[in-house]
C-alpha cells in the first residue's frame, strides 16, 4: 500500500506554510485562500482551512531511510522542533516491526514521526535533509470501533491487516511497510505521548496494487 494524497485540516494556513515549507523544507505545490499543498517525497500533503470551529489533531508519519533515526533526530533539533521523548529517549525501537521512530510536533501540536523500516532496505545516502523524507508512511485514524472500520476499508479497497500487527479492539494497523492506516479507538493515547486520540476530518488516497481509492473520515 502507498499513501498517495493526504488531506488534513488546519486552523492557520499561514503557520502551516511556515512550518512545512520553511522549517521542514517541503516543496509548496500550490497555495490558495483555503488550501495549501506540499510535495513530500512520493506523497502529496494537503491542508484545508478548518471552517467549523473544531480543533483538529493528527498523528502521521514520514518514511526515512534505514539507519537515519539519529541523523533525523539531530536534523530536527537543529531546526528547533519540539521532540517528543519516550521513556527510553528520543528514538523508539519497534522490534516486532523492525522499525525505529523519532516523534515530534508541528506548529499546531500534531504528532509527527520519522520512521525507518529495516525490511524496506532503503539505504541512507549522505547527510540527512528534506530529500531524506521519502513520503507519507502512516496516518492515524480515530473511531469508536477500529475493527468495524477496518472491515469497511478492506471491503472497499482490498487493503488487508498489517502482518506484523497489531490487530486489537483498541488499535490496529492495515497495509504494508510501504504504507499503513493506523486505526485507534477514540481516547487511546498516541505513542509516545499522553495525548488522547480524537476524531478529526481526514481525506486520504491510497494505492493497493494497481487500484487507488479515496477514503474520507469525519469527526
Model description:
The chain is of the alpha+beta class and 219 residues long. It has a single domain (2-217), classed as 2,3-Dihydroxybiphenyl 1,2-Dioxygenase, domain 1. 15% of the residues lie in helices and 41% in strands. It is built from 3 helices and 14 strands. Strands 5, 6, 7, 8, 9, 10, 11 and 12 form an 8-stranded mixed beta sheet that branches. The relative contact order is 0.20. InterPro entries: Glyas_Bleomycin-R_OHBP_Dase, Glyas_Fos-R_dOase_dom, VOC_core.
Nutshell version of this structure?
Residues 2-117 form the VOC domain. The chain has 219 residues and is α+β, with helices and mostly antiparallel strands.
- Number of strand segments: 14
Second-tier CATH architecture: Roll
Strand content: 35-45%
For CATH, the homologous superfamily is named as 2,3-Dihydroxybiphenyl 1,2-Dioxygenase, domain 1
Q: How would you sum up the major sheet?
A: 8 strands, mixed
Q: How far apart are the termini? A: 24 Å
Q: Detail the poorly predicted runs.
A: none
- Topology-level CATH name: 2,3-Dihydroxybiphenyl 1,2-Dioxygenase, domain 1
CATH class: Alpha Beta
Count helical runs: 3
In which range does the helix fraction lie? 10-25%
Structural class: alpha+beta
Q: How many separate structural domains?
A: 1
Secondary-structure element series: EHEEEEHEEEEEHEEEE
Shape: globular
The radius of gyration is 16 Å
**Average pLDDT, all residues:** 96
